[in-house]
Amino acid sequence: MTRGTWTPDTLIARYDEVRSHTERLAAPLSPEDQTVQSMPDVSPTKWHRAHVTWFFETFVLADHEPGFAPFQDQYWFLFNSYYEAVGPRYARAARGVISRPGAHDVGIYRGNVDARVRDLVSTLDHGALEKLTSTIELGFHHEQQHQELLLMDIKHVLSLNPLQPVYGGAPSAPTEPDRLGWVDVEGGLVEIGHRGAGFSFDNELPEHQVYLEPYRLADRLVTNGEWLAFMADGGYRRADLWLSDGWARVQSEGWRAPFYWVEADGVWLEHTLHGTWPVDPGLPVGHVSHYEADAYAAWAGKRLPTEAEWEHGVRAAGGDVTGNLADLETYHPRAAGPATGRLRQAYGDCWEWTSSAYLPYPGFHPADGAIGEYNGKFMSGQMVLRGGCALTPAGHTRPSYRNFFPPGSRWALSGVRLADGGAPTGGVAR
Amino acid sequence: MTRGTWTPDTLIARYDEVRSHTERLAAPLSPEDQTVQSMPDVSPTKWHRAHVTWFFETFVLADHEPGFAPFQDQYWFLFNSYYEAVGPRYARAARGVISRPGAHDVGIYRGNVDARVRDLVSTLDHGALEKLTSTIELGFHHEQQHQELLLMDIKHVLSLNPLQPVYGGAPSAPTEPDRLGWVDVEGGLVEIGHRGAGFSFDNELPEHQVYLEPYRLADRLVTNGEWLAFMADGGYRRADLWLSDGWARVQSEGWRAPFYWVEADGVWLEHTLHGTWPVDPGLPVGHVSHYEADAYAAWAGKRLPTEAEWEHGVRAAGGDVTGNLADLETYHPRAAGPATGRLRQAYGDCWEWTSSAYLPYPGFHPADGAIGEYNGKFMSGQMVLRGGCALTPAGHTRPSYRNFFPPGSRWALSGVRLADGGAPTGGVAR
Amino acid sequence: MTRGTWTPDTLIARYDEVRSHTERLAAPLSPEDQTVQSMPDVSPTKWHRAHVTWFFETFVLADHEPGFAPFQDQYWFLFNSYYEAVGPRYARAARGVISRPGAHDVGIYRGNVDARVRDLVSTLDHGALEKLTSTIELGFHHEQQHQELLLMDIKHVLSLNPLQPVYGGAPSAPTEPDRLGWVDVEGGLVEIGHRGAGFSFDNELPEHQVYLEPYRLADRLVTNGEWLAFMADGGYRRADLWLSDGWARVQSEGWRAPFYWVEADGVWLEHTLHGTWPVDPGLPVGHVSHYEADAYAAWAGKRLPTEAEWEHGVRAAGGDVTGNLADLETYHPRAAGPATGRLRQAYGDCWEWTSSAYLPYPGFHPADGAIGEYNGKFMSGQMVLRGGCALTPAGHTRPSYRNFFPPGSRWALSGVRLADGGAPTGGVAR
Amino acid sequence: MTRGTWTPDTLIARYDEVRSHTERLAAPLSPEDQTVQSMPDVSPTKWHRAHVTWFFETFVLADHEPGFAPFQDQYWFLFNSYYEAVGPRYARAARGVISRPGAHDVGIYRGNVDARVRDLVSTLDHGALEKLTSTIELGFHHEQQHQELLLMDIKHVLSLNPLQPVYGGAPSAPTEPDRLGWVDVEGGLVEIGHRGAGFSFDNELPEHQVYLEPYRLADRLVTNGEWLAFMADGGYRRADLWLSDGWARVQSEGWRAPFYWVEADGVWLEHTLHGTWPVDPGLPVGHVSHYEADAYAAWAGKRLPTEAEWEHGVRAAGGDVTGNLADLETYHPRAAGPATGRLRQAYGDCWEWTSSAYLPYPGFHPADGAIGEYNGKFMSGQMVLRGGCALTPAGHTRPSYRNFFPPGSRWALSGVRLADGGAPTGGVAR
To answer: pTM for the complete prediction?
Structure first.
């Protein structure tokens, strides 16, 4: 999955950079904050910190460190997320009942593994290191995924607390919704998937051909203001706009607004990592499910793009790739800014739901061994999201990146970009 | 959705043919048999008989019959399956608690609507009839779908009864599994979707281009004998073969064999519509979920075909279309017979799971009005099956037909055809 | 449990009487009606008819009939209700998925067992018969219990049907609520439990002493009119009136009126066995849970009687025992009629919730063998009801009879008689 | 509920004593330990610490402190356990998702309320104080109940952790089971309930007469060794020994030993607050449900005592009241010690299940206002336990004390004392 060029020094430097970023993200959180699992999808902060460490211990140290022994036998069991091949594992939904190791103990575990990884990298001969590098690099990207999850998860934990705790960041100045523009894209037989020497996950491979009719993509994400119009027009009450499964969820879970919106005295507020604030109509809507995204598109007389349309469109029409929000530590999408004729907000604001189910590319082959469980076994019952979001760490996005969640999932920072022409048009008459 | 040519006489003749076939299928069933709903997916026989009647009453008579009034106000509510636009409807999972109207009363309802439809067709002027024909034709195909469901559903009802009741048919002579052959198919930019003047559902449209790498398809379905080998090799105990969602179901529901198989004194028996019999190794395996089909393919080092590969393959390599089993009233798949160099068992034995999620074709547009709810709103969380099965009524299959079920579904008569090359290869290392 | 005197002739005559009454009750019901199980607590009519037959086959014929063989092996399994000692049994909640044996087949089963029981009774010698008589007599009372349940259960089945089917009976003329009077009862050390030579269940034994403070009992049941006043005063919205478990049910199940009441255009209607009719304020309220009965008593500043108070009160103050409603085939409680200074409506209208948990009497000892499972093992989590109801067959009531249901149960025909003084007074301040 | 004599000084001294004991119990626990809710019945340690503080703030300060304002508005909502009259409250089952206030913040809250209560008591005039004293005293006993719960709850939390954390205490030297003796008790018309000037809860009142047949009580609790014999004899596999509800739980939850027992390599170990140790056959069995206690008694051919028998027996035959284990900080039952002719282990080892449902005493009247919700509304669906346990704080036990839990509850430290004669004898034939 990797074709990068690393020396022991650059590998250790990058290792330290990635690892310390995790600790920086956890720093504002108390031991109690780090312990809570607010729903089965969410993991405690200290679990994230320990699990990414377990990944290096299991896949890097275990097979290569001379005289390897686990730091703590039970951690092997506690911090395995889903790798069946590695042995039995602790039940996901019960991560919140494990008070020990505490946040401080996890820090000690991290320090121990860090020292051992540095040692190993420094002492391996060239050939051995070359073989190990791709796993270490996978560990970097794995930890970055958990950095994003750590923020999504703690957002949920804090949102449930009536004391309205603040994690960090600050609200931006109120904005006005910008006019939506469209970018036309020629279709044809196009190349999709990861290309070149850089890192990718196995699910982005192999590069392959897909035939596309001509289409167009909205040049920015759907805004809160537009979403309020959808709500005002009965968007959550009109069965005709919804997929059947989506409509069932609207009713069983009482959806009437995006996940973190709450109504107080007739005003819509939004839980954010910087507290609970009035909804800003100029910012992109976030924390909507695929079902909601699809219903909105039907209401707007448009559709969601396929993942191939998204990827080809970003490559062809130019994505706005500068400035990951994660660097800004705002932890929230920003306004689109003035139109540029290119695709705005393609990476740093909200993950973008596509109309594509998460399935293997033609010729896909998972990696050998336990690492092969990384992606392939989840190719069922999920939809692809593309781009990135304001919680994604810098350097973790690329045009071929395939994120995925079940269509009813709302706690991820997921938003909507519309498409039109060419591929499926649901129209109002769902 | 239709482009057929009908006269009032041929329309009425076909109407009578379709309608009487439903009654013929229900004839062996007692009033009690027709009342039971054995799980939420299953509907009582008398509900099927009434619902297909309601379809004609609602979509044909209501808007066109002079002085229309419903046969019974409450039937309007009781026999609406899922059409939100038609008004509130009775809860699906509680169809089995409605003892009245009884089986005999449903017959009276059917007779009443039949007479009124015949009257209407006989008296409409040419222009009006032309507009109505496509809805009536849709009603035929709708009723045929329920004929198949009626048999799948009563199979489940009777299978739960310790008295082991027989619906009909008889076991075939025991057979030996035939050697599996492969049919090579050239890929390229191919046409997929319904073409020509005949009837199709809206989800088979529009015809469109898809790019395929070269591939090959197994020339027959996976057999019970092969499935027993999969089981003997730990197929239901090896997590590495399974999609994550599938493995969770294996464990939560204790799957260890196809849906209707039961072990007695070390011998595997199978509930069928002709009673409970030892599993015949030469017959196609049926009543397996998509998860099981996918795990089997991984075990075999092969994969499932995409729906485009299936459709193009059947067209290019020649499907074995003769002899729908429904005509034979065996109600069970048959053995493959000798190899022919073409694709055997393509229509009349088991619906074939593909690796494609059920999604709209590029440019898909559902019909206007309530009829638009027929297909489009279900395009979420389901997988496509192709072909047909031994319970499918004669004349109801075609290359472009898209059946669909959730990936964990097992009560449909669904089986497995392997593919290889070109598109995704899961291999053993899931 | 019995001390009656029977000859073969009187035993057979009574047998025929009891058995034919069951068939009379089932006669108005179609095969479909007899098949439905509308919730786990409810059993299909044909199951009741078969189960009481199984009881005679299992406990009378199996051990005494020369060359005994079951009528049908699987019936042994299908129609065992809860006797662990008799072997495995079919799952209670799935009785509604068994379409066969059908209603007609059950009739054949009944006829077969009836003939064999008559034969056995006619041919046994005196000593053997004497030993068997108490089991046969238990079978009579067991079947009577199921006669009552059959009516309660079919009431529920038909109530769910939007066609509002009628079982039988007819509404009585509207009545006005009668003024509530009180009957004073002296306390002291009193005798409780079954006495004398007649039949009783084991749970009514042994007769024993209980100390009671002086108390008084309402001379009639709480009426629908009084219940409407309770509702109008926020009875279902005031947590302070309710037991904690009861309040949880009010909220989780949305209780706002008795079980069979439905509001239509501001008027309260009630599902009855003679159809859906406006609530009659003069009739006793029925189908309320223990929680509701207790909350009503708290609202009224009174309390429910203990079972000892009820039994002693009925004996001391004179129960109104004439005229079981079952004889009248009204299938519904009647109005109290003019005050008499005695306890009105003590047997034939609604089972009366007491404040006593269903527990063994001091010195209680269940019968030996499987019959010992009849009562004792249910002495947990249930409350005692006393008296009888309009669905109880004639001759099935007595002062010491202990009926029991979980406190949240509402589908039984259960009502409320208030008590005051002596024992616990909840008052408004629950 | 109190008739004690207090001065401001003795009241403050006792207040400080009770309050500081809570903090002493929490001291060994990390912030993470104090945050976890391992199941809905369990509350986080920091919640217990805050809730008992809320009790004083709500029922003592709110109505009497001049210029009262809550320490923190949201605490009012977060730390209300179940008092409907005080306003809305936070969902019990979600106490574990609230990370803030943290353990340290709760300490600040406690200090603030402590200072204010001391101030109030010091400054109130004599008459006002007299009225308030009974509420303050109730607060002491309320906090003591939570001290016991805090230990029961953290025992559960730590037991789930594969790291096997230790709270405190140490295992005692292994012991041999002592021979079981019996203490005969005369029956008759006896007085039950709280008497005299000391504190009691409202549910222990009023004192009243109950008639008892002569009976006898085991002179010690059932031991682990005896329980192992019950298990070896198929105790958890014989339906005939169990109440129907109990047998259903055995099967649905897979019970095969007491709650905290785990089998490892054929040896039974027990989770305790001092770690996981082999089961000591001489110690009393603990953490068994009422269902298990009842099944054990049936197996032993004995029965459980009624609560009246227990209370009268302890008074008549002399309970062994010296030495609450809580003082010893062993946190675990001890061996019975040599027979004395009196009832051993009556208070300090395991709460003792009785055969009595938790119901109001004759003439019971809950207190006015929100405090009236303390006991009365829970008188449904629970069984009475008597005595006390090794986690009960010193000074919190008395003969009339009525503890209560649902019959399936196992996480409380509950054990078994057998009775015989007089009252109900289940015998083997349940």
So the answer is: 0.94
